[in-house]
Amino acid sequence: MADERKTKKEPTGEGTSQRMRELQLLYHVSCILDQSLDLRDIVSPVLEALSGFMDMRYATLTLLNRKTGDILIEAAHGLSPQQARRGRYKLGEGVTGQVVLTGKPAIISRTSESPMFLDRTRRGKRPDTSFLCVPIKVEQEVVGALSVDLVFRPENELNAYARLLQIIASLIAQAVKLRRAAQEERERLEEENQRLREELRNRFRPSNIIGNSHEMQLVYDQIAQVSKTGTTVLIAGETGTGKELVAHAIHYNSDRADKPFVRAHCAALPESLIESELFGHVKGAFTGASTDRKGRFELAHGGTLFLDEIGEVPPSIQIKLLRVLQEREFERVGGTETIRVNVRVIAATNKNLEELVNQGKFRDDLYYRLHVFPIYVPPLRKRKADIVLLADHFMEKYAKENGKHVRRLSSAVIDMLMSYHWPGNVRELENCIERSVLVAEGDVIHPYHLPPTLQTAEATGSSPRGDLKGLVDAYERDLIQDALKSTRGNMAAAARALGTTQRILGYKVHKLGIEAKKYAT
């Protein structure tokens, strides 16, 4: 027994001390993790604890972005923020990229002798520096790496440090797992919120209005907000922007949808008749009043009255409008009976009512009574993203109405539509497309089908009138682009469609500077 005790290897004091220090480090790291599993709270204290344990110069924790494939420094010890930002790797790139790719630890005895040590952070390759990098795994999936730079050590010490780092990396992995789960949950919620927002946009986007631009989305949001209420609405915008469509959308998305929608165009009504048209009259009220007659307010009872061009109402009628808006009652022309109505009023104007108020041409009290919920409909030049969508809609509409086979707009036509300033707004665009459909002979609308107002060198980008070569080149370019668009960039098919050879078409494409590849899917 005595001999056996003599031959049994006893641990040295230095080895016991090292193991004790390792246990103390792991205990300290465990305490940090017990306090929080939020990665932002634990990484810096853990790296600080490592720094106190081993004579290290730098330490980094890198995480893999699964969407981009980039490996980025999440936290660092000893590096400046600028150095940390430079620490970016791809899978398999450098020591860190290889560790994340393979899931195996890496030990570099001397960084100056290793071509794999890329030194992206520019901290320097030194012969007296060793580098250790171990993977961070979550359920066998490598999600990042933990690495340290330390003063050169013998191989056995580096192996011992690497094993210790792997244990710490496995402890950190739990925090990474929670972080990833939280990130995935945030992304899921964001996708769900985006889907719900899209559903709401589509749900409240009026079917009678065309447009997906940001400017129109604001209009749709306002329509959705006010439709279910009984609030008075004032719609402002230039002529031809679609103010009446907005009024229709508000009415037919409201609780009054099954009730009357009555329109009164104030600018079209003679001043002598506007009072009778709005409030009605009794028999004998004036010459020609042979019977009692209901006005627009009575006809709209329970529903909506749309007062278009409200700025044209004469001052003598404005006071009576104010009374109806405030009291919901009035008398017919020539009558004494007070009539009460339940009417929602939507007014529209293409004029600046505030200026009319300042000029004394519009009552300020009526203006403020109308200006409860204003909606501004932007002109077409400020919602250019909708031009092609509207043009396609009108093209399909009038092609069907007139039995035409027009199916699309040429590239040159789209360029002209987008460059035009559209003073008449959507109404002018509709008239333009209707005319083009009527005069088009094939299935494509070309520039020469558009009205003369759009036939300008500035709009088409073509050479001045009279330059035959420029006009011919522009026409050829238009035809070739249309053919390439139809064939999705297939040169052979485009040549057949144009009745020419692929060699000639290739020459024309090169000569005219057409990029055929951009038409390929």
Mean pLDDT across residues = 83
The share of residues in extended strands comes to: 5-15%
Regions with little confidence, pLDDT below 50 for 5+ residues: 1-12, 457-465
Task: Give the terminus-to-terminus CA distance.
Answer: 86 Å
Describe the sheet with the most strands: 6 strands, antiparallel
Helical proportion?
40-55%
Q: How many individual β-strands?
A: 15
Describe the fold and architecture.
The chain has 521 residues and is of the alpha/beta class. 49% of the residues lie in helices and 15% in strands. The chain has helices at residues 2-7, 13-35, 39-53, 81-86, 94-102, 155-204, 214-227, 243-252, 271-279, 296-299, 315-327, 353-358, 364-370, 387-401, 411-419, 425-439, 457-460, 468-486, 491-498, 502-512; strands spanning 56-64, 70-77, 88-90, 106-108, 129-138, 141-151, 233-236, 261-265, 304-308, 329-331, 338-340, 344-349, 373-376, 408-409, 444-445. The protein is elongated.
